[in-house]
Design goal:
Shape: globular
Strand content: over 45%
CATH superfamily: Immunoglobulins
Radius of gyration: 16 Å
Order of helices and strands: EEEEEEEHEEEEE
CATH architecture: Sandwich
Strand order of the largest sheet: 3-11-10-5-6
Length: 147
């Protein structure tokens, strides 16, 4: 798939995903994960406090990207949630990270969750182009998933 999908794109983009959608700025606290270590196939929740640091009420689309072990592509979008915040307001946003979001498809077409350390990036855009807050998750064992 290298060279055929955006996932492996290495160049700079003109307008990253989510660019220009707000008239204010948002700050992200350090995220918390419901469990630091899970068994392959299990799910976790990741929660981050988002603050509207600007002077205007606005919506923010909180994006969750996952960097997976043994995956050389860019972190993958695994979830998102829209939150409305008044100027100066802070709200917690929780996203579920399930086995499918943690999985990779190997060269034989088998989808599985691998053991290793995963990085969960939360922010208003892709980690390469936007300031994100990160949390770590360790997965033990392996789990095969249906296609």
């Amino acid at each position: 798939m290298d060279g055929r999908t955006y996932r492996y794109f290495k160049g700079d983009v003109l307008y990253p995903f989510g660019h220009g959608l707000s008239y204010t700025t948002f700050n992200y606290a350090i995220p918390s994960v419901s469990a630091k270590t899970i068994k392959a196939g299990d799910a976790v929740d990741v929660t981050v406090d988002v603050t509207n640091a600007g002077k205007m009420d606005s919506d923010e689309v909180v994006q969750l990207y996952i960097a997976k072990p043994n995956d050389t592509s860019n972190p993958v979008l695994a979830g998102f949630a829209r939150v409305n915040l008044k100027a100066g307001q802070t709200k917690p946003v929780t996203l579920k990270v399930d086995a499918r979001a943690l999985s990779l498809v190997d060269e034989k077409g088998i989808r599985k969750v691998q053991a290793g350390d995963y990085t969960l990036h939360l922010g208003g855009g892709q980690p390469k182009y936007a300031k994100t807050a990160a949390a770590r998750l360790t997965v033990t064992g392996e789990a095969l998933l249906p296609k």
